[in-house]
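From the methods appendix. Each design record in this collection lists the discretized structure first, followed by the designed amino acid sequence. Records were kept in a plain field format so they could be parsed without special tools. The example shown here is representative of the layout used throughout.

RECORD:
C-ALPHA CELLS (359 positions):
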C-alpha cells in the first residue's frame, strides 16, 4: 500500500564504509503508507494481538522512512537480489549498524557485510532519527512500526530502491532488541505471507508477561533533554543510563563508544517497552529464523542461567515458531545487549556468516 513508488533521494554519495572495500551508500527517504489497528490503550502488553475490535483504533497514515542504503560495487552472483533490512532498537537509530567514527570502522555491520558482498538498508524506525515522528507517541506501537517495516520490505521487492539499482528478491530482516520485536510482531501478524525470506533477531528473547526489563530504565525525552526534545509527547522516551546496554566488564568495549552512543541516542515510543510480551505468542512464520543473544547481555542473560544451556534456550524459544524452515539460537560469548558496539567483533562476523546460510 505504498502511495508513492519512488524513493526520495536526499543525497547520493560514494563513500568508503569499510577499509579496503568499496561500497556505495546513499541516504534516502521512502514514503510508506500504513493502515492498521492499534490498541486504544498503548500499554496493552500484547500490542493488541489479543484485543477485540472495541479496544482497537485505526491508524491510517503515510510516513517518511529514512534509511541508509549500502551496496557493494561488485555484487557477487551468490548475493545478487539479496538485501538485509536492518532495524535498530529503542533509543537508537540506523547509526547503530554503522558507528561512523573512524576508530570504530570495523564495528560497522553495514560495512562488514557490504565488504562481503551483501547490500543493506538500515532504517530509522518510526518516531526515531530522521524518520517521521507522529505528534502522538501512542500512534507508534508495534502494529504501526512493524507495518512500516514490512511495507518497506514489500517496497524493496517491487521498486528499485534507487534508479538503476538491482531489484531485490530476498529480504532478510535483521533486528536489534526493539527492532527484533517489530520483526517478531510482523511474523505473528503475517505468518506465511511475510515479505521476509529470513529473520535474524538479535538481543531479543521471549519476555513473559510482567517480566520485561524495568521501565524505570527509561525517561521522558523532554525531561532528559528539554532543549532538544522539550516539545515531544512525554510518551517519547530515552534510555538515559546506557550502562546495562553494555557488558559489565568495562574492558569489553571502548570508552569512546560510550561517547558515540551518548551523541547518537534517540527517542522511541514507550510502547516499544510496554508491549514486549508479544514475544510470548506463537507465530506461523515459515522462513528460517536465527536468534542471537550476547552472553553478557544484562537485560536477558547475566544474573540468570538462561543463556548458559544453549540447547535448553533453543528449545524454549523454538516452541513459539512451529512452522519455520529452520530455527537456531546463538549465544555470542562476550557480547552485551548492544552486540554491535562491543570489541567482540565475532558477533558481527557471526551475523554475516548467518546471512550466508539464511539468505
Ligand atoms: C473487549 O475488550 C475489552 C477490554 O479488554 C473488554 O472490557 C470488553 O468487555 C470486551 N468486549 C467484548 C465484546 O468482548
Ligand atoms: C493520542 O491519541 C489518543 C487516541 O486518539 C488519545 O486518546 C490521546 O489523548 C492522544 N494523546 C495526546 C497527547 O494527544
Ligand atoms: C546506571 O545503571 C547502573 C546499573 O544499573 C548503575 O550501577 C548506575 O549507578 C547507574 N548510573 C546512573 C548515573 O544512574
Ligand atoms: C552526553 O552528552 C551530553 C551533551 O549532549 C553531555 O552533557 C553529557 O555529559 C554526556 N554524557 C556522557 C555520559 O558522556
Ligand atoms: C579493529 O581495527 C583495529 C585497527 O585496524 C584493530 O586494531 C582492532 O583489533 C580491530 N578490532 C576488531 C574487533 O577487529
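DESIGN:
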Amino acid at each position: 500500500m505504498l502511495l508513492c513508488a519512488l524513493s526520495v533521494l536526499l543525497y547520493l554519495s560514494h563513500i568508503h564504509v569499510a577499509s579496503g572495500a568499496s561500497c556505495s551508500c546513499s541516504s534516502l527517504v521512502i514514503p510508506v503508507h500504513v493502515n492498521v489497528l492499534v490498541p486504544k490503550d498503548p500499554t496493552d502488553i500484547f500490542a493488541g494481538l489479543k484485543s477485540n475490535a472495541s479496544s482497537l483504533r485505526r491508524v491510517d497514515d503515510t510516513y517518511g522512512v529514512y534509511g541508509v542504503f549500502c551496496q557493494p560495487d561488485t555484487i557477487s552472483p551468490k548475493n545478487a537480489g539479496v538485501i538485509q533490512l536492518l532495524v535498530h532498537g529503542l533509543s537508537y537509530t540506523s547509526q547503530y549498524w554503522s558507528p561512523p567514527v573512524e576508530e570504530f570502522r570495523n564495528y560497522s555491520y553495514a560495512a562488514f557485510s557490504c565488504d562481503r558482498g551483501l547490500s543493506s538498508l538500515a532504517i530509522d524506525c518510526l518516531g526515531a532519527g530522521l524518520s517521521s515522528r507522529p505528534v502522538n507517541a501512542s500512534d507508534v506501537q508495534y502494529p504501526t512500526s512493524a507495518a512500516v517495516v514490512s511495507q518497506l520490505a514489500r517496497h524493496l521487492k517491487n521498486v528499485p530502491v534507487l534508479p538503476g539499482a538491482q531489484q531485490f528478491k530476498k529480504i532478510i530482516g535483521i533486528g536489534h532488541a526493539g527492532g527484533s520485536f517489530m520483526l517478531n510482531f510482523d511474523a505473528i501478524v503475517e505468518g506465511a505471507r511475510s515479505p521476509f525470506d529470513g529473520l535474524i533477531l538479535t538481543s531479543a528473547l521471549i519476555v513473559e508477561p510482567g517480566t520485561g526489563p524495568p521501565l524505570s530504565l527509561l525517561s521522558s525525552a523532554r525531561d532528559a533533554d528539554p532543549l532538544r526534545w522539550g516539545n515531544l509527547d512525554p510518551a517519547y522516551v530515552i534510555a538515559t543510563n546506557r550502562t546495562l546496554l553494555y557488558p559489565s566488564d568495562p574492558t569489553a568495549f571502548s570508552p569512546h563508544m560510550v561517547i558515540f552512543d551518548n551523541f547518537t541516542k534517540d527517542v522511541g515510543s514507550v510502547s516499544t517497552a510496554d508491549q514486549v510480551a508479544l514475544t510470548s505468542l506463537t507465530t506461523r512464520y515459515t522462513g528460517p529464523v536465527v536468534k542471537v543473544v550476547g552472553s553478557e547481555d544484562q537485560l536477558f542473560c547475566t544474573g540468570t542461567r538462561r543463556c548458559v544451556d544453549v540447547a535448553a534456550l533453543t528449545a524454549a524459544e523454538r516452541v513459539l515458531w512451529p512452522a519455520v524452515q529452520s530455527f537456531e539460537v546463538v549465544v555470542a560469548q562476550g557480547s552485551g545487549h548492544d552486540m554491535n558496539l562491543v570489541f567482540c567483533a565475532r558477533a558481527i562476523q557471526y551475523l554475516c556468516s548467518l546471512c550466508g546460510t539464511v539468505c
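APPENDIX NOTE: The chain is about 25% helix and 25% strand.
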